[in-house]
């Protein structure tokens, strides 16, 4: 397990280094103007020397203790990114655990009802949840709440912004939808695989109860397969976070990260593109750290659930 954790750390260093190299690509462009001075085209030419100079310009103040720089309000980018990340964590952490518990519960329900009349609410509902974009569910929930508010059944709800508890709760629900269905499908597949194992047939022949077979043997052994997908769950949460924060005007890390990236399309002066490299690097650092932590949790959990992997070198 130690080897795998070390490999994860090295992979994170390599991935973040590549991101920084891409972020620090030289931004100078050659502007082509028309006869009247109007803009016609912009031409970009890459230079290794310019790239090296861009890296030096970024890391020199960082090594001098100046950090990633400051924004227009004289706030350090790293502090602002951390404050916004904490705001987003109010969505990510609850959504992560809700996705796991409800996803596993839904997967168990799908497995138990796979041959019965409740299959429509079980396995088929999971397939629908995986097939339909979660944005459809979000819009449906919002329209339903707006209708109830219009009828006076539910009043005082604020669906947008970051300062309202109900907006936070709704955003957590929105964020949990697709990962829950995804994990339910994984749980169902894991239980189906375990159901055909030799030890299950032997235990069933000895008269073990279905409850013991499902919850003590099959589900416990299947959990190891579920934790392999921890990184995937976190990636789904983060990718959906950008959509949900922007859609609901929840001003967290994903919202501001998108705003800082968007300005890179603006031409700043005659020969460069405006890009807040310090802000983007600060937000990217925290997002990649979150992915790294998910991978570490996955490896530690696998080590406890699969004792033979604790000393593994794979």
UniProtKB/TrEMBL annotation:
Pfam families: BPD_transp_1 (PF00528)
Ranges annotated as spanning the membrane: 5-25, 89-109, 121-148, 168-191, 226-247, 273-297
Keyword Kinase in annotation: no
All copies of domain ABC transmembrane type-1, residue ranges: 85-298
The entry's keywords: Cell membrane, Membrane, Transmembrane, Transmembrane helix, Transport
GO cellular component, one term: plasma membrane
Membrane topology category: Multi-pass membrane protein
Biological processes annotated in GO: transmembrane transport
InterPro entries: MetI-like (IPR000515), MetI-like_sf (IPR035906)
Family: Belongs to the binding-protein-dependent transport system permease family.
Cited PANTHER family: ABC-TYPE DIPEPTIDE_OLIGOPEPTIDE TRANSPORT SYSTEM, PERMEASE COMPONENT (PTHR30465:SF44), INNER MEMBRANE ABC TRANSPORTER (PTHR30465)
Record-given protein name: ABC transmembrane type-1 domain-containing protein
Species this protein is from: Jeotgalibacillus alimentarius
């Amino acid at each position: 397990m130690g080897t795998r954790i070390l490999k994860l750390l090295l992979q994170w260093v390599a991935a973040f280094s590549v991101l920084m190299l891409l972020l620090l690509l030289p931004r100078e462009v050659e502007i082509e103007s028309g006869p009247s001075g109007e803009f016609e085209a912009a031409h970009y030419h890459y230079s290794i020397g310019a790239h090296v100079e861009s890296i030096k310009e970024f890391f020199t103040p960082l090594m001098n203790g100046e950090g990633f720089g400051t924004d227009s309000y004289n706030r350090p980018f790293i502090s602002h990114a951390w404050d916004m990340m904490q705001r987003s964590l109010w969505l990510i952490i609850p959504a992560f655990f809700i996705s796991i518990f409800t996803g596993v519960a839904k997967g168990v329900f799908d497995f138990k009802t796979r041959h019965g009349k409740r299959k429509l609410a079980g396995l088929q509902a999971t397939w629908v949840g995986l097939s339909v974009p979660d944005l459809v569910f979000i819009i449906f929930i919002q329209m339903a709440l707006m209708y109830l508010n219009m009828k006076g059944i539910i009043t005082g709800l604020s669906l947008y912004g970051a300062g309202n508890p109900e907006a936070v709760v709704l955003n957590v629900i929105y964020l949990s939808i697709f990962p829950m269905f995804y994990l339910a499908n994984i749980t169902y597949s894991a239980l189906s695989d375990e159901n055909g194992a030799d030890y299950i047939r032997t235990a069933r022949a000895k008269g073990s109860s279905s409850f013991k077979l499902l919850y003590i043997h099959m589900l416990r052994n299947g959990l190891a397969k579920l934790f392999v997908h921890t990184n995937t769950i976190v990636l789904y949460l983060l990718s959906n976070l950008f959509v949900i924060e922007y859609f609901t005007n929840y001003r967290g890390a994903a919202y501001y990260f998108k705003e800082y990236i968007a300005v890179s399309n603006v031409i700043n002066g005659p020969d460069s593109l405006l890009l807040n490299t310090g802000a983007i690097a600060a937000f990217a650092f925290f997002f990649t750290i979150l992915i790294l932590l998910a991978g570490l949790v996955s490896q530690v959990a696998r080590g406890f659930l699969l004792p033979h992997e604790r000393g593994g070198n794979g």
